[in-house]
Amino acid sequence: MGQLVQVGFISSQSLDVCLKGRARQKATEILSSLNGILSAPQRKLLKMELAHLKDLQDNLREVEEEIRDSFSQIEGPIQLLDSIPGIDLTAAYAILAEIGQDMASFPTAQHICSWAGLAPGNYESAGKKKKQCVTQGNNYLKTILCEVAWVIASHKKLYLSGWYWRLKQRTDCKRAIVALARKLLVIIYTMLKTNNRYDEQKFLERKEVSDQKRVKRMVNELITLGYTVSLAA
To answer: What is the pTM of this model?
Structure first.
């Protein structure tokens, strides 16, 4: 029998700090595994797995370097997309790999949304409109944009996150995320076409103007119904 080696000792107090949620229910089992022993075959297998992990990490770094080299020629579009909250370099690479940097292939934003599968379908039967679903399209791009939309929705005090939460009050979260992904793609399309960076302040100013118009419209409706309206400062 091979020699047994003590793995180490971790106290229950130290482990308790690291565990969350359902993992706390298995604290005893986890503690026993961490403070167990390894035989020679187990140590050999562990070394093989660690070596395999190192190879994967080296391969990942090599692929990432190749991607950076490939996109170094279009640094401008990368920086444009990276200026959008929720989009990092990895997401920017993935999005541009799908849509490219030249938006001439898409006459309008609606065209690229339809191509990506983010345009709502219009289903009608016997004169009655059915439940709308997004169209078929580029599932990879759709998935990336939806993941970015989830990141944006988790932020606070952003125009796009506020837009998502207002929409979510009228529908379910999945539909609101798809709508946010579609809005995000329209913004990306416009940015690449006009070569303008994302400006949060401009969106906030536009929202303020829209809110003022909405207030004015509602006040006019109340006055039409015979009410006297006095706006508080």
So the answer is: 0.67
